[in-house]
Amino acid sequence: MSLNEAFKALSDPTRRQILTLLKEDELTAGEIASHFDMQKPSVSHHLKILKHASLIDDERRGQHIYYSLNTTVFHELMSWYFTFTTKEEK
């Protein structure tokens, strides 16, 4: 995972909304698309960027692909973030 790719993926409000949806449950691309006023190829594009940044995982079950959060990457991002909030004592 590249921090740059993760932050690029997180910079888009639609992708942040997708992550919020996936926080609740794993979903198919069609289920995700039903929450937005956009074409399915646009949703697929956002999912591709999130997957490339390792923020989501996918798993094929029969004819459907289910998307879920990759919480490991979020833990890595938070660990990086907290390096700026804690001050080492000398």
Mean pLDDT, to the nearest integer, reads 90
Q: Order of strands side by side in the largest beta sheet? A: 1-3-2
**CATH architectural designation:** Orthogonal Bundle
Low-pLDDT stretches are: none
Coarse shape? elongated
How do the SSEs run, as a string of H and E?
A: HHEHHEEH
Number of structural domains = 1
Question: Regarding CATH, which class?
Answer: Mainly Alpha
Using only CA atoms, what is the Rg?
15 Å
Taking the sheet with the most strands, its summary is: 3 strands, antiparallel
CATH topology: Arc Repressor Mutant, subunit A
What is the percentage of strand-forming residues?
15-25%
Given helix and strand content, the structural type is: alpha+beta
- What's the name of the CATH homologous superfamily? Winged helix-like DNA-binding domain superfamily/Winged helix DNA-binding domain
Query: What is the number of strand segments?
Result: 3
Distinct helical segment count: 5
Helix content estimate:
55-70%
Distance between the termini: 32 Å
Structural topology:
Elements: H1 3-10, H2 13-24, E1 27-28, H3 29-33, H4 40-52, E2 56-61, E3 64-69, H5 71-82
Helix pairs in contact: 1-4
Structural overview:
Residues 1-89 form the HTH arsR-type domain. This is Winged helix-turn-helix transcriptional regulator. Pfam families: HTH_5 (PF01022). Keywords: DNA-binding, Transcription, Transcription regulation. This protein is an alpha+beta fold. It has helices spanning 3-10, 13-24, 29-33, 40-52, 71-82; strands spanning 27-28, 56-61, 64-69. The longest helix has 13 residues, at 40-52. The termini are far apart.
